[in-house]
Design a protein that fits this description.
Strand content: under 5%
Structural class: mainly alpha
Number of strands: 0
Radius of gyration: 23 Å
Shape: globular
Helix content: over 70%
Length: 494
């Protein structure tokens, strides 16, 4: 089997579970945006944005480090596993010591909007402290499942997690109010504690699903041995902290705009603006799903093939397929905005203009993640720190400057600028330090063509679905004409 085909297979298997989970979760967006006011949805967006940033800190880059050190110490994998989990465990203990005594102060700091109760935010913070700790404990066991080549088990656990999360959400948002309103059995008991429109039920659902995931991972937890190698552990921390900063910078790029919107806009509109922006940003989810699936398959694949003679040629071919795919998805999403907008409530449609820049930002991010193979394989993770740091600085500084005047439209375009800058920096530094023969002209041709088509579809033809999809079909036919043979080669044997 060709290495390209093997990569496609790994990405497809991990991607199937990821895509299924994310799409099922995506269908909660119309539920949330119809059940909650814009301001309430803004609270939900804010809490999950903070959680994303803290998740990166808790994992401490140990997932990537785990894969790297499995390859580096292939004769001592158990100790690598032990050390990786122990690192995360210590970090979570420190996190609990630094947060539990100060829950009220943390709630004061993150609260947005002027009509929201402080006691509610305190409860939200308590829920998320528990969620973050449990999810952090699960990171290395999940990575072990991937390293052991068991995508089926990985997918099942992820799928069970999201099914429980969705079921509980629908129970709290739809089923319980229905029982109460129709005076069905149990209505009196439910009405005694149920609070209509309380967004905390979303967070409680997340906590319960995280606990069940932890229980499902018990076989992996039972394989952990408290047998550590101090030298290896220090090496792993040395490798992981630049990965942590790079990951954290990436998460900041992804979430700081939503957090800054809540802090920089007047309190009377901040929660509503965050809600509109967060709701419309969900429409770009389809491309981020593909990128996440790609990362899940790519990282272990890249490390396992690093010693192959033709590794760099394989990486270049994968970039070709990736650019074609994300360019087509970019065009397809924007061409069909008039259909996709129904996934959010009508009160959110005022923010649809953020979708083209946000989606192209994901295109740039995906290419950057593909390019990042060079500094991970050459143990130069400091460059990941530099590149992501530049992106984070751009995100924070530009948002602080422009949000007060342009609100969430500034955030959307700044996201594009930050990810594009990271992509360009990674390419040039990569070619200098770990040259990979990417087909730059062809890849740029696809990217520029997709930008032109999206501009015509969104601005010139005013989101006309027929014009947009006609251009999408022509673009896809052109890809088949120019690269059809190469695309078929991914399924062939060498």
């Amino acid at each position: 089997m060709s290495t390209a085909k093997k990569f496609a297979g790994q990405t497809a298997v991990y991607g199937a579970s990821t895509i299924a989970s994310r799409i099922l979760s995506f269908f909660l967006t119309p539920v949330y945006t119809r059940a909650y006011l814009n301001g309430t949805y803004g609270v939900l967006t804010t809490m999950f944005s903070w959680a994303s940033i803290l998740n990166a800190i808790m994992a401490f880059g140990m997932e990537t480090t785990f894969f790297r050190y499995l390859n580096k110490y292939s004769d001592n994998k158990q100790r690598v596993y032990n050390n990786a989990f122990a690192s995360v465990l210590v970090i979570t203990i420190l996190f609990l010591l630094l947060t539990l005594p100060f829950v009220g102060h943390i709630a004061n700091f993150i609260q947005i909007g002027k009509n929201l109760h402080h006691t509610d935010f305190t409860v939200y913070v308590e829920y998320f402290i528990a969620i973050l700790v449990i999810d952090a404990w699960c990171v290395i066991p999940f990575a072990k499942i991937r390293a052991d080549g068991r995508p089926g088990r990985y997918g099942i656990i992820k799928f069970v997690n999201i099914i429980i999360f969705i079921t509980l959400n629908l129970t709290f948002i739809w089923l319980i109010p229905y029982i109460i309103n129709h005076h069905l059995t149990g209505a009196a008991w439910l009405s005694g504690w149920y609070v209509k429109g309380w967004v905390g039920y979303v967070f409680l659902s997340n906590l319960i699903s995280s606990i069940i995931t932890l229980l499902l991972l018990l076989p992996e937890f039972l394989k952990i041995r408290f047998d550590f190698d101090r030298k290896m552990l220090l090496e792993m921390f040395g490798y992981s902290w630049p990965v942590l900063i790079a990951n954290l910078s990436f998460i900041v790029n992804e979430n700081a705009d939503k957090l800054l919107l809540g802090q920089l806009l007047p309190s009377g509109i901040s929660a509503r603006e965050v809600g509109i922006y967060g709701g419309c940003a969900k429409i770009s989810l389809f491309l981020s799903i593909f990128i996440q699936a790609f990362r899940l398959g790519a990282e272990p694949f890249f490390f396992s093939h690093a010693k192959n003679k033709n590794a760099v040629q394989t990486y270049a071919r994968i970039m070709d397929y990736f650019v074609i795919t994300v360019s087509l998805i970019f065009v397809a999403l924007v061409a069909n905005i008039e259909l996709l907008k129904y996934f959010v409530g009508k009160s959110y449609w005022v923010g649809l203009g953020v979708i083209p820049p946000l989606v192209f930002g994901y295109v740039s991010l995906g290419i950057y993640m593909n390019l990042s193979v060079w500094y991970k394989l050459s143990d130069q993770t400091k460059y990941g720190l530099y590149i992501s740091g530049v992106g984070a600085i751009l995100t924070i500084v530009l948002n602080v400057l422009f949000i007060p005047k342009y609100s969430y439209m500034a955030s959307a375009w700044i996201s594009l600028i930050a990810y594009s800058a990271m992509m360009v920096l990674s390419y040039f530094w990569g070619q200098k330090n770990y040259p990979i023969p990417y087909n730059l002209k062809k890849n740029l041709a696809y990217i520029v063509s997709s930008i032109v088509i999206v501009y015509l579809s969104f601005s010139v033809f005013k989101r006309n679905i027929f014009a947009g999809n006609s251009m999408l079909i022509l673009f896809a036919l052109a890809a088949v004409y120019f690269d059809g043979k190469d695309l078929k080669a991914i399924f062939s044997k060498q």
